[in-house]
């Protein structure tokens, strides 16, 4: 009792306990002190989340690169490293973690869109490779263009039909008519691009002559076992010429 009187806090708790016990005993209620406990934080776990956690100083910085403290040319690995480091430093502070994650997600989305654009845009990738190539390759590629895919497939279909027609009529007559039609088509397509009939005529004849010479040189090197008995040297040479005519009217400027 003397210790209770010397400590006011303990005495107050003891007095309240006795009064409640007497009151409940009058009402027929048995008091169980285990069911009532004074709500005082006992350890750090009982404290609110993030009370003692440090605050991220760049929460209100708009630029996600500056918020994470990295260069605008940082790689994905550097972005991940900065994000993990900052989350570890400011763990426990909810607003800081949200700010770091928001900047990280924004940069990740920008990186994803950039990679997707690079994969889809084939022309930009080819242009970049051309810019990095030697000067003589640049001069050579100035005469080459990449048309739309639909144009490539339409012209490929046309010359494939010419080749199939020549093979079907190989036993009856030579492919002279089909070669003439293919040359006319090549000149027509080139004239559409160059707006010069003379230039188109020269390129078309040059492609036919180059294809015919290459066919005359390389076709005899093919083993006869691989060649159909009815296919003549003229037919196989015309097939090579169709390839050169297709390349000329499709990819040359």
Quickly list its features:
elongated, disordered N terminus, 253 residues, single chain
Outline the structure in words.
This protein is mainly alpha-helical and 253 residues long. Among the domains are: 64-132, Helix Hairpins, CATH 1.10.287; 141-223 and 230-251, no CATH class. 66% of the residues lie in helices and 0% in strands. It has 11 helices and no strands. The protein has helices at 2-6, 8-26, 64-68, 76-89, 94-120, 122-131, 135-141, 149-168, 176-194, 197-218, 233-251. The longest helix is centred in the middle third of the chain and has 27 residues, at 94-120. The radius of gyration is 42 Å and the shape is elongated. The model is unreliable at 1-50 (pLDDT under 50). Keywords: Membrane, Transmembrane, Transmembrane helix. It comes from Durio zibethinus (Durian). The chain crosses the membrane at residues 174-190, 197-219, 231-252.
Structural class: mainly alpha
Quaternary state of the chains: single chain
Proportion of residues in extended strands: under 5%
* Total number of beta strands: 0
Largest sheet, strands/sense/barrel = none
Instruction: Kindly provide the radius of gyration, computed on alpha-carbon positions and rounded to a whole number of angstroms.
Output: 42 Å
Can you write the helix and strand succession as a string? Answer: HHHHHHHHHHH
- Give the number of helices: 11
| Percent in helix | 55-70%
pLDDT average, as an integer?
78
Alpha-carbon distance between the termini? 109 Å
- Report low-confidence residues grouped into runs of 5 or more: 1-50
Outline: elongated
InterPro entries: CPP1-like (IPR021788)
GO cellular component, one term: chloroplast membrane
Transmembrane segments: 174-190, 197-219, 231-252
Keywords: Membrane, Transmembrane, Transmembrane helix
């Amino acid at each position: 009792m003397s210790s209770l009187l010397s400590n006011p806090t303990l005495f107050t708790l003891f007095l309240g306990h006795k009064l409640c016990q007497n009151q409940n005993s009058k009402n027929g209620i048995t008091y169980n002190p285990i069911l009532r406990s004074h709500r005082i934080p006992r350890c750090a776990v009982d404290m609110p989340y993030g009370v003692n956690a440090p605050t991220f100083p760049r929460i209100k910085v708009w630029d996600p690169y500056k918020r994470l403290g990295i260069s605008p040319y940082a790689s994905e690995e550097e972005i991940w490293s900065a994000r993990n480091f900052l989350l570890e430093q400011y763990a426990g502070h909810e607003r800081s973690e949200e700010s770091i994650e928001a900047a990280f997600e924004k940069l990740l989305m920008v990186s994803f869109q950039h990679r997707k654009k690079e994969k889809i845009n084939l022309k930009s990738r080819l242009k970049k490779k051309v810019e990095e190539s030697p000067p003589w390759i640049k001069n050579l590629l100035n005469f080459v263009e990449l048309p739309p895919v639909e144009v490539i497939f339409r012209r490929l279909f046309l010359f494939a039909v010419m080749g199939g027609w020549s093979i079907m009529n190989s036993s009856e007559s030579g492919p002279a008519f089909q070669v003439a039609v293919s040359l006319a088509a090549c000149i027509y397509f080139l004239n559409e691009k160059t707006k010069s009939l003379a230039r188109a005529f020269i390129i078309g004849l040059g492609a036919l002559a180059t294809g015919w010479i290459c066919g005359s040189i390389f076709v005899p090197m093919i083993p006869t076992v691989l060649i159909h008995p009815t296919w003549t040297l003229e037919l196989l040479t015309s097939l090579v010429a169709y390839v050169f005519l297709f390349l000329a009217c499709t990819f040359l400027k």
